[in-house]
Amino acid sequence: MCPKVRSRRRGLRITLWLLVALLFTAAGLVGVVLWQNSYDVTERRVSIRHGGHTLNGVLATPRDGRGQHGLIVYVHGDGPIGATHDGGYRPMWEANAKAGYASLSWDKPGVAGAPGDWLSQSMDDRADEAAAAIAWARARPDVDPARIGLWGASQAGWVLPKVAARTPVSFVIAVSPAVNWLRQGRYNLLAELRADGASAARVEAETARSETTRRLLERRAPFEEYARATGGDVRGMTARRWGFISRNYTADATRDLPVLRGVPVLLVLAGHDVNVDTADTERVYRGVLETGGALTVEHYPDGNHSLVKQSIGESELTTALVALFRPRSLFADGFLADQRRFLAEPGRGGTTPP
Q: Which end of the chain is more exposed for a tag (fewer CB within 10 A), N or C?
């Protein structure tokens, strides 16, 4: 056999083995992703009637063989969020299931084909929505009506106490909750400018723009006037978003928080939160709720606003990779375990962590 033929065959064998190795590697990676993103809960799509339309929900129940479980009702933060929050809720749902709790969440109106428009809602509308979901859950034979609590993040800080005013809840888990819309907005603006290393001139200009926006909101100015006031530089603001802000910019949880006195509340605060002033939030929550003895405050120095580890969350690529291959390790150390421990405390009927 001539050397050229032998060389060609050897090259083909090497290529074949490389392809086989790549296929095995790819199959292994797919297997790891499927395994890591398989959770010890049973998810089912549910429909909840409210206000003449349907909430498209997901009910995630433990696989422990029990006929009845406690329930945690999820209240989203800002933005077009679906029932699973792009899968980000699932590690929490699994932790809840280990504590003997089911989890209920739904697509915001207008998200994933759900009817309605979340940008047309007020915080009271969102509270009515959650109260309707709780009423629906209480009628189910697989839910213990005496063990229904709330979980909410960020903007949900304005919704959670409103829900508790409408229907009894057993506990509340408030994650990076906002207190006052205008104070939060100012804090977020200055925190982001500091993170960008903005000059003093830019800080002054952005602060002046923020004040102009506030005055327009106070006058209930239409979007067109906002656009003129900013010289057409609306920075992604739309008429629908302006309407949402106009309806909700006076939100202040301080007025509603007293309804939670005596209700077990777990306040979760992150060390790298540029969205919410955690010091202000803790001060308000302690001032209103601490005298009742039912407030627990947990700090996570390595977490960002979403309680994702700061070292992961600062890179979109790293976040995506960890979400694929190790989703349970996305969150700040102790975050999931502490919530499970909170659910297992006496009176809440959860399963004690090992």
A: C
Q: Residue 230: CB partners within 8 Å, gap ≥ 6? A: 209, 212
Greatest extent of the chain over all pairs of C-alpha atoms, in Å = 92
3-state secondary structure of 174: strand
Cite the residue boundaries of each domain of the chain with CATH code 3.40.50.1820: 41-180+251-343
The rounded distance, in Å, linking the Cα atoms of 52 and 284 is: 37
Please give the pLDDT value at position 188. Answer: 97
pTM of the model: 0.88
Architecture of domain 41-180+251-343: 3-Layer(aba) Sandwich (3.40)
Q: How many helices (H) and strands (E) does the chain have?
A: 12, 8
The first and second tokens of residue 336, run together, are 């999931």
What is the per-residue DSSP string for 102-144? Answer: EEEEEPPTTSTT-SS-GGG--HHHHHHHHHHHHHHHHT-TTEE
What is residue 103's predicted lDDT score, i.e. its pLDDT? 98
**Average pLDDT per consecutive 10 residues, the chain (354 residues; last block may be shorter):** 56 59 51 55 94 92 91 97 95 94 97 95 97 97 96 98 97 97 97 96 97 97 96 95 98 96 96 96 95 91 96 90 83 94 77 52
The one-character DSSP state at 352 is: P
Q: Which of 178, 177, 175, 164 is nearest to 92 (CA)?
A: 175
Distances in Å between the Cα of 135 and the Cα atoms of 41, 252, 254, 273 are: 23, 26, 26, 34
